[in-house]
Amino acid sequence: MKKSKKSQKGVTSNDKNKGMGKEKEREKKSSSLESGSYNYKMFSFFNRKFKINEVEPPSDVNKAFSLFTDEGSTHMTAEQLRRFMSVHQCEVSTRLEDAQNIIEQVVNRRHHITKFARHTLNVEDFFHFLLSDDLNGPIRTQVHHDMSAPLSHYFIYTGHNSYLTGNQLSSDCSEVPIIKALQNGVRVIELDLWPSKDEILVLHGRTLTTPVSFIQCLTSIKEYAFVSSPYPVIITLEDHLTPELQAKAADMITQTFETMLYYPESDLTEFPSPESLKYRIMISTKPPKEYLEVRSKDASEDESSPKDDSDASESDQEDEDFKSLQAGVSGYKRLITIHAGKPKGSLKTALKEVTDQVRRLSLSEHQLEKLAGSHGLDIVRFTQRNILRVYPKGTRFTSSNYKPTIGWMHGAQMVAFNMQGYGKSLWLMHGMFRANGGCGYVIKPDSLTRSADKLFDPKATLLPVQKTLKVKIYMGDGWRLDFKHTHFDAYSPPDFYTKIFIVGVPADEAKKKTKIIEDDWCPVWDEEFSFPLTVPELALLRIEVREYDISEKDDFGGQTCLPVPELRTGFRSVPLHDKKGVKHKNVRLLMRFEFV
Length: 596
Fold this sequence. Notes:
Its cofactor is Ca(2+). This protein is α/β, with parallel strands linked by helices. The chain is built from 17 helices and 22 strands. It folds into three domains: 59-131, EF-hand (Recoverin, domain 1); 151-289 and 340-448, TIM Barrel; 467-595, C2 domain (Immunoglobulin-like). The protein has helices at residues 6-18, 22-30, 59-67, 78-87, 96-111, 123-130, 133-136, 176-183, 214-224, 243-257, 291-302, 309-334, 347-352, 365-385, 405-409, 424-432, 479-482; strands at residues 33-34, 37-42, 46-51, 154-159, 188-196, 199-202, 212-213, 233-239, 281-285, 336-339, 360-364, 387-391, 414-417, 441-443, 467-477, 496-503, 510-513, 524-533, 540-547, 555-563, 570-577, 583-595. Helix 5 (96-111) packs across helix 6, helix 9 (214-224) packs parallel to helix 10 and helix 10 (243-257) crosses helix 12 (309-334). The two termini are 40 Å apart.
C-alpha cells in the first residue's frame, strides 16, 4: 500500500506559509537530484534513490514510424513525413515544404544545430515531433469558421463585471482585469457606470468595491481591444447615470474610440457579421429613459399659462438647458448598437414577441434554468435573431461561476463569466473559446440556427448517437522540468493518474479514469476510452491529471479542456494548464483521437 504522503508534506506546506525556515533549507539540501536519479531524504536517516526512467516512444508510435518508412530504414524523409501527416493525421493539405520545415525545426531543437544539416528524422526525432504541441497540437490554431453570419449565430466570449480584481463585495476595481481579459481573447466587456458628482466611475454598486474611472477603462479597452483577435469588441454598460452624465459618457466614448466605434444609422433588423466589424467597438445597453419626452410634454403645457417677464427669462434658460440635455442624451442613445432592456411583460411573452428590430435580453443563471424547463424551444428560437446574455446569480459573492453548457444548449450567445477566478466551470469556458483559433467567436451548430422544423430541442433525451470519440492516452511528461522534485511528495516521485470527461448535453456527459502509475515522473498509461456522442457539436473534452494521495485530497497535476468538434485526429501533444488556466511550459500528454 502506498505510504501516507500528506502527513509527510505537512512541514513543507507550513514552511511555505511561514517563509523559508531552517527545516526547509535542510530539506532542500538533503533532497537533491543526482545524475540519472532523484534522492529523497527520510527522517534525516534514510536516503531513497529513484531512477529517472527514459521517455521512450510507445509501441504505436514505433509501428507508425515503421509503416511510413522504407522497410529496415531508420530514418523518415520529408515525403514520408508528409504522407504520414496526410494519411495518419488526416492533414490532407500538408505540403512537402511543410514537412521539410517540421524536420528542420525538430533537428535544430534536438541536436542544437543552428544550420540545417539533416533532412530526415530518426524515431526519437519523430517521437519528439509528436510530443511538441506547437508543431502537433490537438486543435487548429487558425480562424476557420464562417465569419460572415450575423452576430446572433455565434457564441461570444463574454465577461461579467470585467473590472473586478477579486470578489463581488470588497475587491478593487481596476483596468487590469479588463486588459487581461482582452489579452485572453474575451470579446464582451461589462462596465457598471455610477455617478460621483460630475465624474463617471466604474464599480459594483452598493458594495465596498473601490472604483476606477470610466475614462481609464475606455482607454485600456482601446489599447488592448485587438491584441489577441481582430473581431469586434462589445462593451455592455450597466448604466446608473443621470442624463447629464449620459451625455458626458457619450462624449468620452466618441472621443476615445473615434473611427473604431461602430453604430448604425437606424435600429438594426439583423445584426452585422463579425467579419464586417473587424477592429470595431460596439456599445450595448438600455436606451435612456423616456422621461425626457414627458418633461417636454409638461413644458408645452406650461406655455399656455400666463408669465411675467422674469418668469419668461427663466423659462427661456430652462428651455435652452433642456434642449442641450436632450441633444446629449440623444447622442448617447445613438451610440447604442445592441439595444438591451427588460421585457415589459413576462419573460415568456418576451421570448415569443416578434419585432422588426433585433435586441439583447439578459437572464440570470437561475432565470434561465427555470425558463428552460418549460420554454426551451422558445429560447432557442429567440436566439436565432436576437442575443441572449446569461449572467451569474447575485449570491456568487466569491466570483465563482455556473455551468455554461445550459446556456450554449439554448443558443445563448453571451454566457457571461467572472474571469478573475478559476475553477472547473471557467475551464469549460476556456475550452469552448479555444475553438476557431481563439478569436472569441465560435459559430453555433446548424441545429441552433436552422429552420423551425429541424430546430434542436434541449429537452430531447432519446437522441441517436452521431459519432463516437475514441481517446487513447499514452503517457505524460514535463512535470520534472516544471516542478521541484518534492512538489508532489517529499519522499518519493509522484503517482499520477488522469481523469477524462465529456461535458455537453446531458446524454453525452461521461467520466473515465486511468490507472495510477506509482513513483514515476513520466507515467505511461497506454489506455483507451470510447465516448458515444449524440450532439458532438456542443461537446467538450476535459482532461485533468491528479497525483494520488492515500490520506488527503489528491494533488493537482494539470488540466485542459478542448472543443470536441475541433479535435485533430491521430497522435497529438496535449499541453496542460494550471488551475488559473496558465499553460505549463513543459507538461503535456501524448494522446490519440479518432472518430468512428
